[in-house]
Amino acid sequence: MNELVHFHSYFFTKWDRWDNGLMHPKALLDACTELTRLLLRFEHPADSVVSKYFRDQRKTMDLGPRERSVLAETVYNVLRQKLRFEHLAKSGTGVRERRLAILGWAAHLDAQARQQQATAQRGDRGFMKAAMSEMEFKWLSDCDAATEDDFLAPHKHNLPPWLAEALETQLGDNFWPLVDSLQQTAGLDVRVNTLLAKRPDVLATLKASGIQAFDTPFSPWGLRMPAKPNLSKLALFEQGHIEVQDEGSQLLALLVDAKRGEMVADFCAGAGGKTLALGASMRNTGRLYAFDTSAHRLDALKPRLARSGLSNIHPVAIAHERDDRIKRLRGKMDRVLVDAPCTGLGTLRRNPDLKWRQTPEAVAELSVKQTAILAAAARLLKPGGRLVYATCSLLREENEMIADAFSAAHPQFKPLPVNELLAADGVAQADSLCTPDGLYLRLWPHLHATDGFFAAAWVLS
Question: Are 369 and 250 members of one domain?
């Protein structure tokens, strides 16, 4: 079957293009089917699977930007609405992954139509129809006619039972607004590198290039682009004036409030997005350590660092949170950020596969790791220093419960109300970004149009 799919795709893409410049619709649907099959194995992160598929097909398939867009959006729709689509697929015939791909492609067309015309309900099926049999198209029309009354709760929220139960218990009436937001694609946020540029100037340059953008409502450094343009060839990007970074992530760096000349540690730096924001806040002075247990992730920081104009950042690969290179810096840091390893469930708009790849057992294991990492990072602080713990998770087990336990076990660390810290930094509506008591940052996709983030802060007395 796979050999037939690849031959079919090769034949049509090698020798035929459709009237609108896209590859033949039959070949495009075959490609969507194959990529759906690969993703539903859940062996690797979805973005890695999609990127590898595009690389592997370069020699046999003529995938242009529009084909890649259709493929990516189709399969991500399948991941977002997996339970709903599987329910609808039962009424069809043929290969299951093909039926799921048809539903995902149709959802992509519908989303495009809604972007172009607020009243549109269905996208143009003309090009897509040429890829399907009459029976398949009739089945898709029947699926289109389904109403919400035809679906059970799991088909509507598209979450595994354990996660749906946890979020509904936590959110109550806000559960369904969150669900609706997680079904949408996220826009593209960038952070203006204030060491090299000013936000109004960058915004003007983007608009002059025909790119729609506007100021993020909370971060003073951010710009948001609803259409998710390719920025990699823009001079603004190549010269380090902008970096892709969600507004919520920018607020975490703002919360650290790193100053000129300080010693600062980004304890779980990853690819360094927040590290770069901290370095700009420090105006390229002082010393900023970027620690991570993955040298591979730190390698991704190198080209970003080269563009940024920063020279005060020192990437350090460590074996674990008890590494000797950590111990030598004990009691020397003015600020420490712990953006801890987590489930990443706050990023489901961008990474919908995570809800199917995470488990309650993984949450429990991560909670142990988060507790250990936070305790180890806290030892780096000098008296009067600020500690910030953060995740991009939605779950209390990784957020409030970790912070509350740390405060109870380390009375020398005084909790700092995050709403007051953000207000002091000039963040508008700081109270609305926090828990009702103002103690913790709590960002939600349905309330703040950011990824889901949590943060807590302490000062060492």
Answer: yes
